[in-house]
Amino acid sequence: MIGRLFSLVIDCPAPSELASFYESLLSLPRVEDSSDYVVLANTTGTEIVTFQRVGGFRPPQWPDPDRPAQMHVDVMVDDLDVAEAKVLALGATLLEGSDKPIGYRVYADPVGHPFCLITRESVTPSK
């Protein structure tokens, strides 16, 4: 083994604002908070996601290869429609061509990072 995942670091213009979105989406508590970075952890205190302030932030543009996604998160849900209503209320945007009835849908967080809501149908092989 070379190492273990310590934290997913997401560049953004306003760490506290973007962290609030992911706190609600992933049910992870904020364990560090400054003007330049915010850290979310799991229930044991292990860092999971860090939001880092960067100047001149250029959001990704789905699916433009000149402005690639840079990262994305898959979030397992039981019901896409129910989950969609909740993430849209938090400030997410459904991305063009992502209105799948089952399996997965692709959204942008409030500053443009894509993320997917997925269901078991998207990861369970067909029989």
**What is the distance, rounded to the nearest whole angstrom, between the alpha carbons of the first and last residues?**
34 Å
Please tell me what the overall shape is. Answer: globular
- Percent in strands: 25-35%
Number of strands: 8
Helix content: 10-25%
Question: Spatial order of the strands in the main sheet?
Answer: 1-4-3-2
Task: Please sum up the structure shown.
The chain contains 3 helices and 8 strands, in the order βαββββαβββα.
Provide an overview of this structure:
The protein is of the alpha/beta class and 127 residues long. Helix content is 21%, strand content 29%. The strands form two sheets. The chain has a four-stranded mixed sheet with strand order 1-4-3-2, covered by helices on one side. Strands 5-8-7-6 form a four-stranded mixed sheet. The longest helix has 12 residues. The chain is globular, with a radius of gyration of 15 Å.
Task: Give the SSE map.
Elements: E1 8-12, H1 15-26, E2 30-33, E3 37-41, E4 47-53, E5 73-76, H2 80-90, E6 93-94, E7 104-108, E8 114-118, H3 120-123
Parallel strand pairs: 1-4, 5-8
Antiparallel strand pairs: 2-3, 3-4, 6-7, 7-8
Considering the chains and any ligands shown, give keywords for the structure.
127 residues, alpha/beta, 4-stranded mixed β-sheet, 21% helix, globular
